[in-house]
């Protein structure tokens, strides 16, 4: 059986998990990325929901398993099994609720305790479109990004802003990490990864991603 990252025309699945407090918009982010849609109606995630997609990259097809985990405290001990072997994670907070940002270090600590496979982790701020209601300013979010040493992406599931960018960057970097053997990233590579959330302009971002991973991206997804 092929291992994750093996180039044989089709790789084994790459596992990506979304974690964060309840009501931060994890399901909406996943729905926007997979289907390009947004719903005003709240969907309650019970434990964890799993979706799959085929992601074309560098002449191969990566089978991506996307895990949408519940954020309720009463089930947090149960959902750890969902991201225990995840290759990558999005830690999501809501820019209109400061408390959800304050929970980020706790989530990262839990990930590090449960997942020892050196996953690629991004910090994601959701609901960027709700400007009048935001309590977490971009500068504050960037401070958390610097503190945790994670690339930061500010997104909106309603408008689609930065959603595809966050997921595709994560998958590309994860693929690179796996094909390189999954070893801990060196400081220089990690510093460059953190720049991804700050790069302005799609052309510059694509150039940096290619320099980091050697991967060209086809944007034609088969879900």
Question: If you had to describe this structure to a student in words, what would you say it looks like?
Answer:
This protein has 8 helices and 6 strands. The chain is globular. The chain is of the alpha/beta class and about 220 residues long.
Keywords:
single chain; 223 residues; alpha/beta; 8 helices; globular; disordered C terminus
Report a brief summary of the structure.
This protein has 223 residues and is of the alpha/beta class. It is built from eight helices and six strands.
What order do the helices and strands come in, and which of them pair?
Layout: E1 10-19, H1 26-35, E2 48-57, E3 60-69, H2 76-83, E4 88-94, H3 98-102, H4 104-114, E5 120-126, H5 138-148, E6 152-154, H6 163-179, H7 187-195, H8 202-213
SS elements, strand count: 6
Pattern of helices and strands:
EHEEHEHHEHEHHH
Q: Largest beta sheet, briefly? A: 6 strands, mixed
Q: What is the count of helical runs? A: 8
Strand content: 15-25%
Gyration radius over CA: 16 Å
Helix content: 25-40%
Oligomer: single chain
The order of strands across the largest sheet is 2-3-1-4-5-6
* Mean pLDDT rating: 81
Uncertain residue segments: 219-223
